[in-house]
Design brief:
It is built from 14 helices and no strands. The chain is mostly helical.
Length: 266
């Protein structure tokens, strides 16, 4: 996506607790993955290993120490972490649950799938469900498609936006799944009341395009063009245009150029 994590104002009924400061800090940590771009000398890798060793110890400590350990595993990956993260999904403190969910998105473990899906369906805290919707992008081969679709259909905007994004990963594992995900994203692009959800739906449709059969591809192009021309929100229009341009389809690029020449686009 082209921007940082969007912010939302939710009512107390939607979000039982407002750990806004921690949520923002975690979001900033998750905007990029340092390990994906790491080109560090051995000393720095040793420092990361030592930090992970410390994180494992902290996860067994008191509340504050656990929070420090969770921050470490929201940033770094370590195969030893999941065994100590999983029990924290049942913590009574929603901040601990939320942070453990983010850490299990960074450190995926197949044993986390069932408890994560249970949290997505049943947790009363919107920040926890939002974290789950984000983390499920790390579990594309697990049975996450239908739960993500339900979240996109029925949950609060903060959850729907990440359900839309994670559907791109869940749908990229096969033609049938791609088509199912695209169908729901096309609907969200047309009818969701929140611009940020429509924007993320456009982004995900662009990502799924290459995994779709031709009739569905054409439907995606038409929907993105419709959003580009008619959506009331400029951020949605910009995301739709970017998605179309990144398809790198000569016919699509020609249509965009024609719209520019006709004065319908700048």
């Amino acid at each position: 996506m082209s921007g940082p994590y969007p912010e939302f104002s939710q009512s107390p009924a939607e979000l039982a607790l407002d750990p806004e400061m921690l949520a923002r800090e975690l979001a900033q940590e998750l905007l990029g993955d340092p390990l994906d771009e790491l080109d560090a000398p051995g000393d720095e890798l040793t420092d990361i290993a030592a930090e992970c060793d410390l994180g494992l110890e902290l996860l067994q400590g008191n509340h504050e120490e656990r929070m420090q350990g969770l921050r470490i595993f929201c940033e770094h990956r370590d195969p030893r972490a999941s065994a100590r993260l999983l029990p924290l999904l049942e913590a009574s403190c929603p901040i601990l649950r939320m942070s453990a969910v983010y850490a299990l998105g960074r450190n995926p473990d197949i044993q986390a799938v069932s408890p994560l899906l249970a949290l997505l369906q049943n947790d009363s805290n919107g920040y926890v469900r939002k974290a789950v919707a984000w983390s499920l992008s790390s579990y594309p081969d697990a049975p996450v498609m239908n739960p993500l679709i339900r979240a996109l259909e029925t949950d609060i905007a903060a959850v729907r936006l990440w359900a839309a994004s994670s559907l791109a990963d869940a749908g990229a594992t096969g033609l049938a799944k791609a088509d199912q995900a695209a169908g729901q994203l096309l609907l969200a692009l047309r009818i969701d009341s929140e611009p940020v959800v429509r924007s993320n739906s456009a982004w995900s449709l662009g990502r799924l395009y290459g995994d779709l059969v031709e009739p569905r591809q054409q439907e995606v192009v038409d929907a993105l063009l419709g959003a580009l021309l008619h959506d009331t929100d400029p951020a949605v229009r910009d995301e739709a245009r970017l998605a179309l341009e990144q398809l790198e389809d000569p016919q699509v690029l020609d249509r965009l150029q024609t719209l520019v020449e006709e004065g319908l686009l700048s």
